[in-house]
Predict the 3D structure of the following.
Amino acid sequence: MGSDELTPGEIERRVRELGPWFQNIELKGVFTAPGHFLGDYPMVKWRKFSHAVPESLEGSTVLDVGCNAGFYSIEMKERGASRVLGIDIDELYLEQARFAARVRGVEVDFMKMSVYEVPDLKERFDIVLFMGVLYHLRHPLLALDLLHEYAVSDLLIFQSMLRGSGDVEDTDDDYPFSETGVFDRPSFPKLHFMEKSYSGDPTNWWLPNRSCVEAMLRSSGFRIMSRPEEEVYICGRAERGFGTP
């Protein structure tokens, strides 16, 4: 049965069968997560930075890493991207994404794959989305390095939960072994490690402050072009940063 043949009742029933949903996506009048604790998420975030993404993506290829239920994948395809690939390690999310794309009437490829397997694609993309993934990873800097080395051709659209100081300070190129005071400064780059759980989620491993996430992006070879939303960065691919091999 095609998406045009699905009634709102059939869509609502399938949405319930595929629940719970983390992303609230509108499917012909049916919302997948109307009671989301963050509101109409991720639409509330997308509205704040959508202007920073080209209105027309005609001819562009897009990789959505950690695509969840496909919200951003669908948005990219609806802006005219020629190819969109969404990857995630969660089978339920991928099933949700395939259903959402079908109902919205867009062709998006979805594949079970982790960010660490991106080199296996042997393909670079004009735009790579890396939204809400960094803090769920055991090896976050490795993930950014791999995206730079193997996946990003032009732009990285990045978002991470941030905790701690929102101030940014310029750090020195080097510090003597005897220097300890800088580590007590709130705005010094910090990546907070959560050994057990945060917000009820045991996969929330790392919570960076703003200085840290910006330093990590630069270190992995990304040039921060803009910060259109508090947690979102539009980055261009550049040379690897200071101290990287």
Observations:
- Helices lie at 8-17, 43-49, 71-78, 91-104, 140-151, 210-219.
- The first strand starts at residue 26 and ends at 27.
- DSSP finds six helices and eleven strands in the chain.
- Residues 58-237 form a domain with the Rossmann fold fold (CATH 3.40.50.150).
